Amino acid sequence: MFAVWINNEVYLRAKGELSVKLKGLGCKAFATNELNKRFVLSDYYALTESILKDNVLMRTLIILSITQIRKEKLESVLSKIGRIRDLPNLSVKYERALKKVGIDNVDILRQIGAENAIVRLKKADIGATEAFYWRLRGALENRNCEFYTEKEKEKGLNKLNEILSANGFRRCKRTLKKVE
C-alpha cells in the first residue's frame, strides 16, 4: 500500500531518501488516529497542498514510493531463498555451474550480479551463454526470463557487453527481432 486517505489527507509511504525528501517539502509524518489510538502507520507522510496541486511532482513521488515498495518486496522474497536452484528460471544445472566459480548461495549472487557472474563463468571456461545471462538476471529480479521487452534486452545486453569487454572478453552480438 503506497498511499492512504485518512481524515481528508493523503499519506504517502516513504523510507530513507524519499522520507527525507518529503520532510524537506514540508510533509508531516503520520502520528495517530483519533478514533483508534492503536492504529499507527509508520513511514507514511501527509502530502501538502502544494504537492497535491503539482501533478508532475505528485506523480514523481508516487512512482518513487511504488518503486521503493517493489524493491523492498523483491529483497524480502530473495532473502528468504537460500539455494540458487530455488530462484525463478534456475535449476540444479545452473546452481552447479555457479558453485564451480564460488557462487554458492543467493546472497553471493545478489552481491556479484548477473553480469559479473557471467564474467566469472567465462574466466573458468564454463559455458556462459546469453540465455544463461537472462536466466540469472530474471532470477535476481524475481521475473520470468522470457518476459523482457526488446528495449530491456538491449539495455541489459549493453551493460553485459561493457563488463565483458572491460574483462577482455568478446561482446555478445544480438540481432533484434523485427516485428512484422
Explain what the structure shows:
- The protein is an alpha+beta fold and 180 residues long.
- The chain has 2 domains: 3-79, no CATH class; 83-166, 5' to 3' exonuclease, C-terminal subdomain (DNA polymerase, domain 1).
- Helix content is 52%, strand content 8%.
- A hairpin with a 2-residue loop joins strand 1 and strand 2.
- Helix 6 (114-123) runs antiparallel to helix 7 and helix 6 (114-123) packs across helix 8 (150-166).
- It is elongated and about 60 Å long.
- The two termini are 40 Å apart.
- The model is unreliable at 175-180 (pLDDT under 50).
Question: What order do the helices and strands come in, and which of them pair?
Answer:
Layout lengths: L2 E4 L2 E5 L2 H9 L3 E2 L14 E3 L2 H5 L1 H26 L11 H8 L6 H7 L1 H10 L6 H11 L9 H17 L14
Antiparallel strand pairs: 1-2, 2-4, 3-4
Helix pairs in contact: 6-7, 6-8
Organism: Haemophilus parainfluenzae
Pfam family, one: TfoX_N
InterPro entries: TfoX-like, TfoX-like_gammaprotbact, TfoX_C, TfoX_N
